[in-house]
Amino acid sequence: MTSEVEDHGPAPDPTPGTGVAAGPVEAKETAGGSGSSEGYQRGLGGRQIQMIAIGGAIGTGLFLGAGKSIHKAGPSIILAYLVAGAVIYVIMRALGELLMYRPVSGSFSEYARELLGPYWGFVTGWTYWLFWVVTGITEVTAAATYVNYWWDIAPWISALVFTVALYGINLISVKLFGELEFWFSMVKVTAIIGMILIGLGVITLGFSQAGDTASFANLYQHDGIFPKGVGGTLMTLQIVMFSFLAVELVGVTAGEASDPAKALPRAIKTVPWRIALFYIGSLIVILSVVSWTAFEPGTSPFVAAFQKIGLPAGAGIVNFVVLTAALSSCNSGMYSTGRMLRDLALNGQGPRVFTRLSRTGLPFLGTTVSAALMMVGVWINYEWPSKAFDYVVSFATISGMWAWIMILFSQLRYRAKADRGELPRSEFRMPGAPWTGIAALAFIFLVIGLMAFDKDARVSLYAAPIWAALLTGSYYVIKRRTPHVFEKQR
User: Fold this and answer.
1) Is residue 9 part of a domain?
2) Nearest in space to 136 (alpha carbons), one of 300, 246, 282, 14
3) Residues 215-241: what's their mean pLDDT?
4) Containing structural domain, residue 222
5) How confident is the model at residue 9 (pLDDT cuts 50, 70, 90)?
């Protein structure tokens, strides 16, 4: 690990049309990947990009949060994931079109800056940074509690060890980060596929303790598909959307992908079958093996299924997988926060010191500051253990969905400009645009509106305006002091 840093800061005046300051590091890049990589090393191969994309769609929201969703909605939760999954695919295709137009590490923050205006890029960059900080706070603390399943260790000790270890890995090389994410994702994928195969065996062959009651009829026999009504299903959409947060992380890897023009579209094209297998497939099998009436909000549906089948090691296996999912999320958070801070600094919208890279091409200082803030979260969760998770999850959901909103609006503006010949056309166009993008935006705003009816999620709606006011004030202060930073994009 090395902490030597080199100043890759911007020159005073921005390069017209790119939104990125001119200097040693140039963000302008073509879809063919022949441009610069903003000073980063292109150390992420196609295999790693694929697994980062897969792993981004599988997190603790599925392994733990689905239990709460099932309790609230019953079998109709499958339909909720199906509809939400279709929206996620539209978002990813919109992101893919933008990435093939210009693959940069700043991703949706950079696109919002160029296509919607500097204010929106500023807000998006800082909001996505905050999203990963608060997510990291939740995940590293959760990981510490999972360790207590095997060993009686003070949570703060485990949290400290995990944070320092992941921080160190993120400072060695991007290739090591990608390799770690590859194996984290492999564990999650293997666990889900194993659960599906075992569950299908129980349903079709009738073996194990669950053999007598396991049946696809469990999906509709107990008060129907909508046992809590359509309203109950709608109220689970916030949790469902939280399960998909981080699927957009593949966009942040664009500046460090070895072959973005090939790897990124391939990863995005696999989104439908990933959602069909990991979410729809696993939930159909689990709810067939175990009736939805047996689930409790704090119980993992995977644990409940293994217990019903009668596998004594099932709970331990799921605990290990959930630990892996939490560490994977925290690892991704450290990766993305450092790059978001550097992108903001390159555009004069953050402290210049964050533009510096280590000798191995890594954003050392941005990652360090973000990791330090994640450690503060250990104390927060210690002080308010009962409600901290719900509050952070709801705030993470609304801040993560902000990134999706900006992706969709940016794609709408980009497509209009490309159709008019003002910008080059992307080779990876979103199908059904602009109507698919408009429908996805309507769905996201519906979810945000429904959050007002959930007492825990409502907290994030109170916090969001405060955060927006803070960012808006900061924007105008910076604009007044350095007006050239926010010159209108051309």
Assistant:
1) no
2) 246
3) 88
4) 24-480
5) very low
